[in-house]
Amino acid sequence: MSPIIWDVGHIAHFEELWLTQNLDGPIEFSEMPGLYNPFEHPRATRASLALPSLSQMTARLEEIRTRVLDRLETVEFDDRNPLLRDAYVYHMVLQHEYQHNETILQTLQLKKGEPFHAPRARTFATRQSVRSDMVSFPGGRVTIGTDDRSAAYDNERPRHHVDLRPFLIDRDPVTNGRYLEFIADGGYQRADLWSEGGRRWLAESGATAPKYWTRDGDSWISRTMDLTRAVHPARPVCHVCYYEAEAFARWEGKRLPTEFEWEAAASWDPASRQARTYPWGNAKADSQLANIDQLSFDTAPIGTFDQNVSPIGCHGMIGDVWEWTSSDFHGYPGFQSFPYKEYSEEFFGSDYKVLRGGSWATRSGAIRNTFRNWDYLIRRQIFSGFRCARDA
Hints:
- With 392 residues, this protein is α+β, with helices and mostly antiparallel strands.
- Helix content is 24%, strand content 16%.
- α1 (4-19) packs parallel to α2 and α1 packs antiparallel against α3.
- It starts with a helix and ends with a strand.
């Protein structure tokens, strides 16, 4: 991960580049050259950079933002400039900052501070079952993606049709309680459950449980930031990599959904034959509808947000944990890079799997049913979980 001060500097200079320099003429750079360019300085090298102090960086950010806001007072949202059409570039920069907010929280979660041991778990009104029911999707032709050009990233476009076979998908994300059963049944020791890549990762990592879990006698405890407590059986499992999700699904006699199946389960209403922007409808996401916006600092027990339900009856598809899918990250048919290929196109390929749905650490302005996240198959510091599917 990056030093947090680097993320702050990157936020500031990305804002300066796109909301001042690139608005004055042809797009010259996609990332600001120099200290805060992620391609010039990969994560592993950033701690050795001559980074400014927090006060210096805060002053720089304030100076840039003052100029950006002054310009915003007089900017004309002219359709002839694709950056300004429907205020796209402002939405893009804001979402960029939101995404780095979540990255900073991943870094803070890695920090090993003096733990606070919770004396007693908070009580929630929730379904306590750890085995998830499945709901059915009838299959057929659905729309995937969006044509929105005001906020959606290039990899979410264009909206297109996909024919899906009928399938079943878990009503809820996989819970800690169900995952504990997988561990107790020797899930990490059974080679038959793991793919070839998963077996290599197991041998290299020595993992025996999700990241931040440790054994406490006959029980398991987990750490969320500086809070350490017993693993809560009704919360979605978090901090698992793709290989762990894949092995669990095989143990249950299921599989991971494709990203198209995930999006259809989250958005498609078979009755109206239309897609929703969010599982609950088109009302904007907020922390009353889903566990998002960095307010809980943890996942919530299954069933806490009773309005967060998709047309076919899937719960919690926005918020709590990013959900791994089985899909490699590629562009949609007719994909066009905009406004720079380094955001999406540079990462297309089988090195990355797509995650959907956001987490408790995702800001409300940076998540929707069509939003596509992607990461390496071994990543566990991200706030990632999953739900399973199978053919109908």
